[in-house]
């Protein structure tokens, strides 16, 4: 049985991307053009969709949400999709465009055998088991960069907090991130940052880098960062390396770099974990 819901709740802890709070923040800022279209399937699967005309996407936005999927037990997800598609077709939906579906999701395996769908690899979200196992070359390169930063800077400290203004100001030092941070996008970050922790790297008490991360059980997810490479060369890499070190010390078992194939993720020990785009015609 499929029915529409005005909202939903999930047991805690869970990844922030799956929560209604995240979906609501997206809808109130960068997703205003879409209607939230949340479905419940047999009371054990939630499908957090958004609708515009006859098109369906996952609510949450592929530009800010690294993993998107229906929510529930894996064995229930695959069983839910035929009911979801039948319901949507009856509601005059003609297409689904589903981004950032994790490689191990039953959603991917279901649509691989669905005649009217196209699946393609969309991006990677490198992650690693902690402590990382680095080959000799990568370990030497990481240690060299850390030593260089320590040698060139004094009074280095890391502190945790929720200073979103520091993070946004450092992100804007990168021309691409400055363009990305539209007023609506900044509003989105203002709404979601308290779901995680912002770690600041200070050099002589001056912010050199900052990172927003989310902790879910024994996994730490590095979501977004900003750094001042002009005045503190190497600050971004140093903060990420220290972030992993502190994750290990706190008992985390997995570090997830989230989307993007930047070189530093592999230098620090990341291994590919892919997300897929699924396009469906009804």
TrEMBL record:
InterPro entries: Acyl_CoA_acyltransferase, BioF2-like_GNAT_dom. This is BioF2-like acetyltransferase domain-containing protein. It comes from the Bacteria. Gene3D superfamilies: 3.40.630.30. Residues 137-265 form the BioF2-like acetyltransferase domain. Transmembrane segments: none annotated.
